[in-house]
Write a structure and sequence with these properties.
binds nicotinamide-adenine-dinucleotide, 1-deoxy-D-xylulose-5-phosphate reductoisomerase activity, alpha/beta, Rna Polymerase Sigma Factor, Chain: A, DXP_reductoisomerase_N, 18 helices, DXPR_C, seven-stranded parallel β-sheet, Rossmann fold, binds magnesium ion, manganese ion binding
Amino acid sequence: MRSISILGATGSVGASTLDLIRRDRDKWRVVALTANCSAVDLAKLAIEFDAEVAVVGDDACLGDLREALAGTSIKSAGGKQALCDAAARPVDITVAAIVGCAGLGPVMAAIEQGGTIALANKEALVSAGDVMTAAVAKHGATLLPVDSEHNAIFQCLAGNDIAEVSWITLTASGGPFREWSQAQLEAAAPEQAVAHPNWDMGAKISVDSATMMNKGLEFIEAHHLFPVGLDRLRIVVHPQSVIHSMVEYRDGSTLAQLGPSDMKVPIASCLAWPKRMETGCKPLDLPAIGELTFFAPDETRFPATKLAREAVHVGGAAPATLNAANEVAVAAFLDGQIGFTRIAAIVAETLNHDIEPAPRTLDDVLAVDRAARIRASELLENA
Ligand code: NAD
Ligand code: MG
């Protein structure tokens, strides 16, 4: 029996993880499940999976959680510190599936336990960068990438020396607006942005996918997980999302990982690692897919990947600033406050201000994140 905690259990990645656990219920002991505020959903999951503790990040929702858990022996807690305390409970594997930099504190708490973390929460790694990778090394923790591209790269690197790699190619679907003109992009509505052609995901990552900021964040994520050098990382648009990423070795061999567009596949690869498990996903039907196509990214219509590349080249506080500004801008877009193309513009304008000094600790990263949110919010108001 293996123990597991799921941070962000009520979200899309959380649901896929719990689906996998349901398939093999007797093999898992669920320790902590967390959510932001969906107390009733969280309580249902905690009861179904007989979790030891259920935690809401927003302590205003703790009352609802307590009510929904009344009569059970499941412990409940609320607030940011409670999320970190839950993440610090010793387990065999922690699935980090909170969205945004809000997940950083809990991820760091799990890392400090020296545990194995299946990381979906890319914003945490983008913001903390070297602060996180140094903590992983210091505490002997293991980071397994859940993000499908990084999971693909991880699989393609297995058993090989990273020094033999000449290129890592991240594939991108191009999102729902891949073929839209600039004028159409300017008028894009939130419900169009969240309707991804290949993947069923949370709202924030769906918008990131539409702006291509998701690939920008993934570029930075890949840089930290697989340090081959920024000039050896590239992005290619592959609309079918069948090849999840590729690694090219110096002898000219390219290894690719293929699979259905279902997050259960990379999540299962982390849960069972270094073994394999059943997912119930339909196998790929290549003759039905017919064609795999590839395009260079268009950074004129989708400037986000360029902004992310520039931010990681600058280093220091720039990636955390880029991420925080993007979170603020995406929330404003989903809220109907700004148009679609303003998202990347707000990120660029936030990065143009004086940037904080390079963060050295978790608190420094959180300070950069806060400062960038304030700047980005001011830009929203002045727009
Ligand atoms: P989601 O919006 O569906 O779920 C997010 C989860 O985080 C929910 O449980 C929510 O309650 C919790 N949460 C949100 N804000 C919080 C806060 N402030 N404090 C504490 N908890 C909070 O998101 P998702 O699509 O499951 O994505 C989760 C993470 O995984 C993101 O970082 C995303 O980029 C990454 N990811 C997702 C997919 C996917 O297919 N959905 C694929 C690759 C990577
Ligand atoms: Mg991805």
